[in-house]
From TrEMBL:
The chain crosses the membrane at residues 220-241. SUPFAM superfamilies: Immunoglobulin (SSF48726). It comes from Triplophysa tibetana. It comes from the Eukaryota. It is found in: Membrane. InterPro entries: CD2/SLAM_rcpt, Ig-like_dom_sf, Ig-like_fold. This is Immunoglobulin subtype domain-containing protein. Keywords: Glycoprotein, Membrane, Signal, Transmembrane, Transmembrane helix. One of its GO terms (cellular component) is membrane. The keyword Transmembrane applies. Residues 1-23 form the signal peptide.
Length: 260
């Protein structure tokens, strides 16, 4: 009994496997949105898998605009492309887009149909590549942590500066994502967060208390110098006093001899 149920499971598993293999498949390499700079070109490349003997009868690319939600076909293989900014290559698997504008953002759907009428589709989101904006630094004084915030901006990278110099281990530790700085040294001076991407950079500075470091180094030097001066002055005074005493003794001696 048990063996038989095992047998059926085994069979079912293989039938399922066969079915999934038989079908056509289409996908994009990444699920992440593609960010495109205004005016530039981009390519969308779909991976289409076919079995031997299987062929495609049609490939369709649809674009659903981000704001209006309007969904229309931008290109079709083999028949036509409706948009002069779009060309298809490699049997329709690659869509080349020239002169991207923000209105071209949204979801692109590729639909492939084989000779048996099976259809598969995959989606890729396209977004505008935005400049870095509104950088600010938030501080958690109790834990000596600084957080760098930026309102929008594509692919931001973060750099921390202390007094205009990139932070070292002595100053603090930057988190893996670069957004936070855990200050381990003195929590003083100017901390700057610089956020960069392909379109430029923006920064914000947090000013903590004035660093006392310099005074601490100079104070002992000044004290030592003053002490040295005092010692020299005391020595001089002692010598002057000694000479004065000796002169007086000599004068006394002379006047004693004279009286004799
Ligand atoms: C746009 O239309 C196509 C074809 O009807 C569909 O496959 C796709 O899912 C639609 N896109 C969105 C984002 O709704
Ligand atoms: C400061 O950071 C600590 C640890 O991450 C957190 O528990 C605390 O709530 C933070 N304080 C403020 C004011 O954000």
């Amino acid at each position: 009994m048990e063996q038989r149920s095992f047998y059926w499971t085994f069979l079912l598993y293989h039938v399922c496997l066969l079915w999934s293999c038989q079908g056509l498949s289409v996908r994009f390499k990444t699920q992440q949105a593609l960010c495109v700079i205004k005016g530039q070109s981009f390519n969308l490349r779909a991976q289409i898998d076919l079995l031997d003997g299987e062929s495609l009868t049609r490939v369709t690319w649809d674009h659903a605009a981000k704001n209006s939600g309007k969904n229309h076909t931008v290109a079709e293989f083999p028949h036509r492309t409706s948009d002069e900014k779009v060309t298809l290559e490699e049997q329709g698997a690659v869509l080349k887009f020239r002169g991207y504008q923000p209105a071209d953002s949204g979801v692109y759907t590729i639909t492939v149909i084989n000779q048996a009428g099976q259809r598969r589709s995959a989606q890729q989101t396209v977004r505008e590549y935005l400049a870095v904006n509104h950088v600010s630094v938030m501080v958690n004084v109790s834990h000596s942590v600084l957080h760098c915030m930026e309102a929008w901006g594509s692919e931001p990278t973060f750099t921390w500066l202390h007094e205009k110099v990139v932070v070292t281990e002595e100053v603090g530790r930057v988190s893996a994502d670069g957004r936070s700085l855990h200050v381990s040294g003195m929590f003083c001076g100017h901390f700057t967060c610089v956020v960069r991407n392909k379109l430029g950079y923006s920064s914000s500075t947090y000013t903590a208390d004035v660093c006392e470091q310099d005074n601490r180094h100079t104070t002992p030097v000044v004290v030592c110098f003053l002490l040295l001066l005092a010692i020299i002055a005391a020595c001089l005074a002692f010598m002057v006093w000694r000479r004065h005493q000796r002169n007086r003794r000599e004068r006394l001696w002379e006047s004693y001899e004279n009286t004799l």
